[in-house]
Amino acid sequence: AQDSCAYQCGNLLATCSCQATCQSLRNCCSDYKDYCLQISPHSGSLMGGKDFLIENATFNTSSVIKCSFKQGIETNGYVDQDGRAHCISPLLYETGFIPFTVSADGGKTFPYSGTWLSVHHGKVAEGEICTLENQTKWQYYGTPNNDGNLTLTWKHQAFTAPKVNIEVWGYQETGDSYSENWSAEWKYLYTLAKEIPNSGSFSFLPVPAEEKYSTWDFGMLRITPSSYSGGQSNVPSIWSSEHALAWHLGQDFRKDPSAWATTKCTEWQKKEEKLPNFMEEIIDCPCTLAQARADTGRFHTDYGCDIEKGSVCTYHPGAVHCVRAIQASPQYAAGQQCCYDHTGTQILTNDSTGGSTPDRGHDWGSPPFLKPPRIPGFSHWLYDVISFYYCCLWSDNCQVYMTKRSSSDCRTYRPPRAASAFGDPHFLTFDGLNFTFKGQGEYTLIESDLTSLRVQGRTQQVHFPNGTGAQVTGLAAVAMQENNSDVIEVRYSEDSSLQVLLNQRVLNFSEQSWLDLKGLFLYSPAAQNITVMFSSGSGVEIRGIGGFLTVTVLLPEKFMNHTQGLFGVMNDNIQDDYTFRNKTTMSVHASPQQVFEFGANWVVENGTSLFTYDTESLLNNFYYGEKHNASFLPVFVPHEDPADPLVEGMVLLCDSDPFCRFDVLTTRSLEVGNSTKRSHQNHKLLVENLKPVISCGWLGQPTNGTKNGTNYLLGSTISFTCDQGYALTGAKERTCQETGTWSGDTTTC
User: In the chain, what's the furthest Cα-to-Cα distance?
Assistant: First the structure.
């Protein structure tokens, strides 16, 4: 008798497999699809209420479905007319892949299992949330010139129910800040409208809420079928975006919004003074826009101000682009933001209201989530956004906010180092050595004892239609892990599309381009682009270009003297980049044959391989076969024949780029040469953009005087003048010097 996958999904059993790889290896247990669930949709907001279908298993219409998420959060499911089961996603205080199990006997046994992707509320698709028409009006309601009806719209197809209820929910955090008893809660407040037609639109004239509710100033609306009672948890629902609840605040707010908000702003300021200073532990900002956009392992575009989307920077006037630090700070889970003007210079709050403001709560939350200050989106709203409404938007006390959230400059920022591999594999190390290694097999690109970071590359033979049959190899797969993080592999699949595997399971980016995973974030904005951001700040970028993978690894400075592999020892010394496993080194002027031996020395062993072997050919060629194919001998130096008709085109295309020339000759393709040239140029540009920049730090204006200039980088000059009737002592002009200090004496008036 064959084993069963009931309770066993993800495991390899004695007679068959319940692992995700079993389908391509054709060794699944016969009931694999019945118990290991595929669901659609597979993701939704962490607020819950999303109805999802279990695709592959069928149930009796009499089955009583219960769905249990993570540690026993149970929701009621149902079986539709077609005998297919549905679950409702629950309210979760975390993002990422959430395991769930399903019961068909009312909760006695839970033999079925799957995973649900819980997503930051700001990252869900537009149709999934109900829309506050003219959202500004909702959030400023009751302030001058903001009155009249408000309108809410939603996709009425989301519910089959003819009538719906609209509820008001509030968010709060109780207990002592940064202590064990600090906890987060979404709370049902009251029903705004009962049993209204499910028409997709509702308009109303807001009235101030009852006194017991009017203290709730941050929350959401929830629409549910009217058959459910008010505030019933984990039922089918559509949530609005999170927003400032100005429209429901009490009479005291409406009478004098500015005075009410000023009081709130002052209360916030007093509370902030009692809290620990999170500013000391957040990463400093990159000095220039070029650095900020190049340091992709540690900083990511802030969607509220994006140069690629036309620089609509509502909260940061004068900025063209902002980035956020990807990782929350270690102890306080705080976030960093950095904004830049059209010259590429950082904008500081000390100089302008458009400056970047760091966050006590990182907007994306941070593992292990579940408790403040790590709740995705909402902790940030409570500490950093609603307070911005109090001080800056509803009253004129923005200087109070900016004092508590002033921009960090870039004096302690150190750019990361980059190494790349591309084409018919060419390698550029962290220290700048470049070489070609055309082995066929699986090799260590980099490993580090600092964080157990491992990045491995697989090269495979590539055949080109008009190629000479010359042995051409290219990167076909890259796998990586840091400490005990999830394992990510990016590879070309049989049909030449890029596949991303998470712990051996193929990922689907149809619903989400950003994933919060264990020990890393994963971002795939386009089919051929993948960025992995590990919690150490190291980043791996992979691009599919012209049939080869291009891989770039970015490492922060703390990895100095902690790397080995094909990308060399990162230590600013090119001489030891050919370091073997046994720590012996070889001259940088080694012959191509010696370089081939160096490369072969970094072959991966089966025991430490991160790759997924889920097809017969991968098993035979790389798992059971040799990891480094010793019988495969490449062309070390391709022959350049002046009579070759290809040479003329090659010279025009490649100019003096040796890698481009090499690849045109081995693949007989100008297109491949062009891809290689592009990858090489991208790497050079990246290295250029990551050059360290000296900053002398912010200089203020003297009391009773003014200053001219807001650039504090090497070579820039700030000049000072005094108000009428005041005399200037100290320097009239101060220049930022190589030492990172300002010239001249402090200016006073």
Answer: 99
Residues 95 and 55 in one domain: yes
Helix (H), strand (E) at residue 293: helix 289-294
Are 553 and 445 spatial neighbours (Cβ–Cβ below 8 Å)? yes
Which residue intervals of 21-87 are DSSP H helices?
A: 22-25, 32-35
Say if residue 526's pLDDT is above 90.
no
Nearest CA to 299 out of 315, 279, 283, 312 is that of 283
Sheet holding 43-45, edge to edge: 43-45, 112-119, 96-103, 66-69, 73-76
Q: How confident is the model at residue 71 (pLDDT cuts 50, 70, 90)?
A: confident
Strand partners, 434: 428
Long-range contacts: 741-746, Cβ < 8 Å, 24+?
A: 741/696, 742/696, 742/699, 742/718
Does one domain contain both 262 and 249?
no
pLDDT value at residue 470: 62
How far is the C-alpha of 523 from the C-alpha of 533, rounded, in Å? Answer: 8
Rounded to an integer, what distance in angstroms lies between the CA atom of residue 233 and that of residue 716? Answer: 59
Residue 494 in domain: yes
What mean pLDDT comes out for the span 524-536?
92
Same domain, 389 and 455: no
Residues 113 and 133 in one domain: no
For residues 268 and 387, the answer to whether their CB atoms sit within 8 Å is yes
> How many angstroms separate the Cα of 275 from the Cα of each of 278, 349, 488?
9, 21, 38
Instruction: Compute the distance between CA of residue 717 and CA of residue 734 in angstroms, rounded to an integer.
Output: 6
CB-based contacts of 195: which residues, under 8 Å, 6+ apart? Answer: 163, 164, 165, 226
What's the CA gap between 513 and 525, in Å, rounded? 6
Structural domain containing residue 740? 694-748
User: pTM of the full predicted structure?
Assistant: 0.93
Q: Are residues 269 and 201 in the same domain?
A: no
- Does pLDDT of 116 surpass 90? yes
Residue 662 lies in a domain: no
pLDDT band at 17 (very low <50, low <70, confident <90, very high): very high
Distance CA 732, CA 747 (A): 7
**pLDDT-derived band of residue 469, with 50, 70 and 90 as boundaries?**
low
Query: What average pLDDT does the segment 319-343 reach?
Result: 96
Average pLDDT over the chain reads 94
Is 200 domain-assigned?
yes
- Predicted confidence at residue 520, as pLDDT, reads 97
The set of residues, in sequence order, having a beta carbon less than 8 Å from that of 719 and lying 6+ positions away, is 707, 708, 709, 732, 733
- The answer to the question of residue 320 being in a domain is yes
| CATH classification at residue 52 | 2.60.40.10
220 and 265, same domain (yes or no): no
Task: Specify the long-range contacts of residues 693-697, CB closer than 8 Å, at least 24 apart.
Answer: 693/287, 693/288, 693/291, 693/410, 694/736, 694/738, 694/740, 695/287, 695/409, 695/410, 695/411, 695/413, 695/736, 695/740, 696/411, 696/736, 696/737, 696/740, 696/741, 696/742, 697/409, 697/411, 697/740
Q: How confident is the model at residue 634 (pLDDT cuts 50, 70, 90)?
A: confident
Domain end call among 67, 88, 119: 119
Neighbours of 311 (CB within 10 A): 14
Residue among 745, 688, 690, 742 nearest 714 (CA) = 742
Number of domains within the chain:
5
